[in-house]
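The instructor's notes for this session suggest beginning with a concrete chain rather than abstract definitions. Hand out the sequence below and ask the class to guess, before any prediction is shown, which regions might be ordered.
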Amino acid sequence: DPCATQEGLIQLFLNQPPFDWYVVLPHDTYLRLDYLRGYLKELASEFNPREQPMAIMAGEAQPFTPPSSTGRRQQQCRQDSEFSYPLANHMVMYSRAAVEKLMPGLRRNSLYSQARAFEATSFGRSIQVLNWMYSIPTLLAPMAIRKPDKPMHRVPSDSTWDPAQALGMAMVSPGNGDDQYTMNQAHKYYTAQTTKPPYSYVWHKVHGFHETTLYARHGDPSSWNDWYTMNITDCNADKSRPKQ
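After discussion, reveal the predicted structure:
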């Protein structure tokens, strides 16, 4: 429910101390807290979370899925890398600066409005659209899915997947299963990891929203006094502005 998610985020951000990072996880994601602390500490040596809006998300950047009722080819957003962003289905972390950037829009129903416009019933797809509109730089965090040897992202042919690099595991099983770890199995596996390879920082930085008709009319969402909902027609391949 995007409406409940939006209200939950507002309450989370308002009723907590001013942390450097805020984490939102579904119940079936295991996060390695000790490893995460080291990951964030090294990141903070170059990027101050109190000053730099940024997100950390699992998986890969994906193009936007058009609403089922307008799924014709001419009603799709552009499909290039500038018009892509990772989903938040399994994890999203925000720096304090990102929270401060998003909060005015959330109070104006930004998340719910975008969810309705894109018929996005999941939290992950709603956040995908909203973060992209704000051009929030995101780190594509290494994350396993179901088992340690299964990375959520595609591994290039010239490299290998090191399970010890994962920040955690998504889609763990509530009970015993052959094809996925339980929460307890994931915990035992990762606490047994004694060696820590160099942390993996892969950025996804795009400004595709700046090429849309909505941006041409109203500018950056951070400057809005009202929320202007982005529809599929605003990021249509035929109507979005060419790169300058």
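Then share the key points. The longest strand covers residues 147-151. The mean pLDDT is 86.
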